[in-house]
## 1
Amino acid sequence: MHKNQIISQLIQKKIITISPDKPFTYASGILSPIYTDLRLTVSYPELRDMIASDLANLIAKKFPETTIIGGVATAGIPHAALVAEKLHLPMIYVRPKPKDHGKGRQIEGRFSENDKIVLIDDLITTGGSVLNAVKATEKDGGHVAGVSSIFTYYLPDAKENFKKANVKYAPLLSYPELLKKENESGHISSEQYNILKTWHEDPWAWSKKFNN
């Protein structure tokens, strides 16, 4: 596994940006001292290959029954393609919503009710988009064995959402691992470390406090 190398490259290439003093605003309205743009990973061959190899190994270990790799549009599609190639498995991908023309498909690619599908997304924040993809896949008769991703914040909301949906989840990298690596490297101060840790424990409370 290349976890430490991947985390180092994500930081060095500014794919993950940490800014405890000037937080970013997410689409949900939440403020965050970290911003993750994993779409950039496809621009770096060595990095994307390490990610694909580690995801393939992770899926083979956690979901050995997998017969199809699925990509969640749009950011999960290239990584799903690379993982499917490494595992020599068929691939499908899931659109955010059905097409408004042709056959109106939301799932592209072929699968049967006997297949065991693992869906891949790049990033899990609350899990909303990937769990919607799970629902769409199962609505079309597919069986989702589980979900994987490059990175997860491991926020309380995500844990609760996956639990409610009864969906297994195996991420490659997590926020606690990133935070540990950054603390050990000396890239952040002890004060910044505490800010990042506090945010992770309750992002909404941290956002409100920062705004005040």
## 2
Amino acid sequence: MNLLEKEELARDKAIELEDASPEEIIRYAVETFPNITFACSFGAEDVVLVDMIQKVSPSTDIFYLDTDFHFKETYETRDRLVARYHIDFVRVSPKLTPDEQAAAHGPELWNSEPNACCNIRKVEPLTRILSQYDAWITGIRRDQAPTRANSKKVEYDTKFGLMKFNPIAGWTNEDVWKYINENNLIYNPLHDQNYPSIGCEQCTRQVMPGEDPRAGRWSGNDKTECGLHK
């Protein structure tokens, strides 16, 4: 399938599957693109998709970007998911250790150049792992941020050059938590402490009442995305 055919397929399927359930979209994705992976950050949306994928296609690869800067609660959530589902999460690490990054770019790069830090610790590792696949699944939702408002449930990802599936793009935050509660899912306990969106510890803070749900990410500058999603 050439690039034009993939783009046409994505457009057609985005229309066809707009009203499909997340499970139906996952099933279509894994059957059409067996060489597919799911990018898991262990947030609320992603534990929902872990559960769905285990029910629909438990052999599908699931990876996470280990930036070395995650909250301990995030690593603990990973370990609890491993224990429940017996998943062998694929760990993807940056080429530089935190010490090597500090030596090459100065201390606390996340403060001086947050985009550069994200590129080193997230974007480059993601580009590397996605180069091994034909498609990927993500947990992005349209109401998470203005930059995601136009996300389709099926897209051709021009940034990374593969098909992209967003099965719960149309869900609300209430939909996510309804599924979590009804299915008694494991989730990151930081969500109960006013952390709706959880990234690296240095760049994530609690969100106060009335603030935008993503106000806790890269607080104090105009950065709203780490660069994983265009």
## 3
Amino acid sequence: MSIIHKTTMSPTKLELLTPWLPQQPWYAAARRPPELSRVGGFRLDDPEGEVGIEFMVVRDDAGDRPAWYHVPMTYRAAPLEGAERALIGTTEHGVLGQRWIYDGPYDPVLVAQLIALLQGRAEPQAQSESHTPDPSVTAEVTGSGFDVPAGAAGAPAVANGPDGTRLLLGDGGPALQVTRVLRPESGAESTGARGHVSAGWRLPEGGEARGRYVVLYDGDTAS
């Protein structure tokens, strides 16, 4: 179960994301640097207990109206080989020491656990409380489930573009579309979707919105 240390990080996650976000193809350009606050998310456990996995929502108030961004991240005690372009930055954790923070869709540990969540083999955890499942996070798949080609979770093809980040799980396998700019669910299904992970985030006036953090597509509808 996730252990959340009540300690310091220098620089903080938001300080690392402030210069990183404007470099992403899905960032909605604003006239000023991002003005970020954390407004939601959840965690997943790494079965090996080595990698921190967090799905964070940040609100950006730099534009004419707020924008909400979904940033899955992993936290590692050493660099992830071959993932230099996915590095958000490094930080000094008050308990764990130096940590390397990565954009999560490029990390095979996060991808494997996201698949496990959709297959009902992983339980979402509260973002800020240790040993606390988060039942507000829902993972739904239509039909009898889905199969992933052997080894695909460890080496997905990642396409990062203005519409979000898509993970192709093997030749002819399913695809995961990671939503980056969050919008409240309308109740309408995404065209061709087999399933999704939904969760909430806080609104400025004190309410809550829900939306699809990740959408699952079959291989024949992944393009």
## 4
Amino acid sequence: MKTIVVVGGSSGIGEAIINKLKDSHKIINISRTVPVTHENIKHYTCDVTKEELPELEEVHGLVYCPGSINLKSFSRLKLEDFQSDLEINVLGAIKTLKAYESSLTQNNGSVVLFSTVASFLGMPFHASIATSKSAIEGLTKSLAAEYATKIRFNAIAPTVTDTPLAARLLRNEKQQESLQNRHPLKKYLKAEEVASLATYLLSDEASAITGQIIPIDAGIVSVKM
């Protein structure tokens, strides 16, 4: 039974990933709050941006889920906003990768990180988050090349997903309908849809996939209606 580390598995996409994997994998959840309980889940309470990560003996896969949605005009964004988004989205991921690099290498591991469609498609008020997520894309491709025969690295770039992080964007029916209509498929995402792609990328079935930034976007990036 493989061991998968999920950072930020207490809610949203991370929780959906755990729910898909918990019956067939050992799960190590690292987050600030406790996730769903299950005999195959071990939880460590930890803020990866501030605290030391737990020492783990065996890691076959890693998913880094923490993120931010800091939507402000550039004139309102402060340098601290960019620093905070980089800390959560990029430096936290790097810190986690460094902590478990050795075990991932020994086990021919797979890593899944998260970008955003805003790194593909210019969107107003996304300067800070698009900057940090674009850094994740560069990190993904660079590490995929560096560890090509040892660890697979891929990133998923979702559009708006119905999670607690995006609750402010989906707080009423009018906003929900507006977001649906912006997408050619007339929908935004459920966490389970993104989780299905993440679990596939972690699996041996995806053994020929690395260095990819994979949009799951309800058509918003590549289709014009």
